From TrEMBL:
Keyword line: Cell membrane, Membrane, Transmembrane, Transmembrane helix, Transport
Protein known as: Oligopeptide:H+ symporter
Highest taxon of the lineage: Bacteria
The keyword Membrane appears for this protein: yes
Species the sequence originates in: Microbacterium galbinum
């Protein structure tokens, strides 16, 4: 341990940031601005793709546009693999996080300044790569702020999640105002400004993070650098060739991302479980993570439809009239963050107060899937209505249920992943959790093709029922899952 690390107060005595380590404020800040830019851009992205050219959009069919958004969202989380690998093998989490923030700024600038599909292609690729690198490593860096036995961990992750949702709340509101008054590219430009603020803030605060955040847990031998460079260039070349040959197209992006994500998840589990560098306890914990992974996929495939099916629903079916003024479509995406801002502190206080008596992670995950399924069933009373037939208050209520389900799974999932992770696969296990989000998000884009506004009952009832069954299955399996998790709850 360095002399700098030795002079710092013990982590359990460092409580200057709402009872949490002060260094959390720096990761809290960059993640907040990243989410501001991410959700601000995503709040207007789908309608930009399918609105007509006369309305400032690109005129892409809705089903194809939804697939693009789902594939892009899945790619964000899929790219956490690259960000995690770079952190674990080459640079450490903190350095990858810093560079990733720069890449995100470049992506938002491309969306704001480059015209048409060129801006969409360049911008979304850069934002996906940068956001993937930032997300996996921000979570990993937060994990380094706590000792393994620190009971504040779940509360700290909930506070970190509050920062995420402060940005997620403000982003769609402000970009929506600019999009509806000045045009789409002004909204994209505001997202770029927000991420730039996050980058500047983090650049000044990053030195306060613990040395462990910069540690490379499993360094790649220098002799293998050329091979890695060749593999990377070959992968890019293959993608370019497939695009030029028409194998990868806008209308099949979501199924391609689903296939790639499934293959990546299987490969990741296989690599970690077969590694000789993990012991029997760590291997058992990875097996215990598998049912949590499956439940997470089921949850996110419904939850992420906020940005696909629910956006279309809000544009065409929701009554957005507020005292004679029509609320921008993107504002619907700020409802969920409001509830998270309100409830995240409540959940953090509950987990802190209960301490070791709180429900286990598998119980929280199972309840989350069930509640998410119920949220989809709540759409059924409004099925078959015409334009402006769904009251805004109904969507507010449904998104409240979304939020309760989310707070039982997402911050808890981030926390338990850092506890179950083998030491040499710390960041890559976080990336494996995000792979479940990637798969669910890509599935949410693919499911847009099955949504029929004229026959909504089968869509919402079948998906809601599947999620409920997945949740019940996990609740019935709590004891064997906890046994595999080896004293991690």
């Amino acid at each position: 341990m360095s002399s700098t690390a030795q002079t710092r107060p013990p982590r359990d005595e460092n409580t200057r940031f709402f009872g949490q380590p002060w260094a959390l404020v720096h990761v809290f800040g960059v993640e907040m601005w990243e989410r501001f830019s991410f959700y601000g851009m995503q709040g207007i992205l789908l309608i930009y793709l399918y609105y007509s050219v006369t309305e400032g959009g690109l005129g892409i069919p809705q089903a194809v546009a939804g697939g693009i958004v789902g594939a892009y969202g899945g790619s964000v989380y899929l790219s956490t693999i690259l960000g995690a690998w770079l952190a674990d093998r080459l640079f450490g989490s903190e350095r990858v996080l810093f560079v990733s923030a720069m890449v995100i700024v470049a992506g938002h600038l491309a969306l704001a300044l480059l015209p048409g599909l060129l801006g969409v292609g360049v911008g979304l690729i850069l934002v996906a790569l940068g956001s993937g690198g930032l997300k996996a490593n921000a979570t990993s860096v937060v994990g380094t702020l706590y000792a393994p036995e620190d009971v504040r961990r779940d509360a700290g992750f909930s506070l970190f999640y509050l920062g995420i949702n402060l940005g997620a709340f403000l982003g769609p509101i402000l970009t929506g105002i600019l999009q509806s008054t000045l045009g789409f590219h002004y909204g994209f430009g505001l997202a770029a400004i927000g991420m730039t603020l996050g980058l500047v803030q983090y650049a000044f605060g990053r030195r306060a993070l613990p040395d462990e955040a910069r540690r490379v847990p499993n360094p790649l031998p220098a002799a293998r650098y050329p091979m890695v460079a060749v593999v990377g260039l070959a992968a890019v070349a293959v993608i370019v060739v497939l695009v030029l040959l028409g194998v990868i197209r806008a209308d099949n992006l979501a199924p391609i991302v689903i296939g790639v994500t499934v293959a990546a998840a299987i490969a990741y589990f296989a690599v970690i479980l077969s590694s000789r560098r993990i012991d029997a306890t760590e291997r058992s914990r990875v097996w215990g993570f598998l049912p949590l992974f499956v439940t997470s996929v089921a949850f996110w495939s419904l939850y992420q439809q906020q940005f696909t099916v629910l956006t279309v629903y809000s544009d065409e079916r929701l009554n957005r009239d507020l005292f004679g003024w029509e609320m921008p479509v993107s504002w619907v995406q700020s409802i969920n963050p409001v509830f998270i801002i309100i409830l995240s502190g409540v959940f953090a206080a509950i987990w802190t107060r209960l301490g070791k008596r709180q429900p286990s992670t598998p119980a929280k995950f199972g309840l989350s899937a069930i509640i998410m399924g119920v949220a989809f069933l709540l759409f059924l009373p409004f099925a078959g209505g015409g334009p402006n037939s769904t009251p805004l208050l109904a969507i507010v209520g449904i998104l409240f249920v979304f939020t309760v389900a989310e707070l039982l799974l997402s911050p808890v999932g981030l926390s338990v992943t850092t506890k179950l992770a083998p030491k040499v696969f710390h960041t890559q296990m976080v990336a494996l959790f995000f792979l479940s989000v990637a798969l669910g998000t890509a599935i949410s884009g693919w499911l847009v093709g099955f949504y029929n506004p004229d026959d909504e009952v089968p869509y919402f009832s079948i998906l809601g029922g599947i999620a409920i069954l997945v949740g019940i299955g996990l609740l019935l399996s709590i004891k064997p899952v906890l046994k595999l998790m080896k004293d991690v709850r």
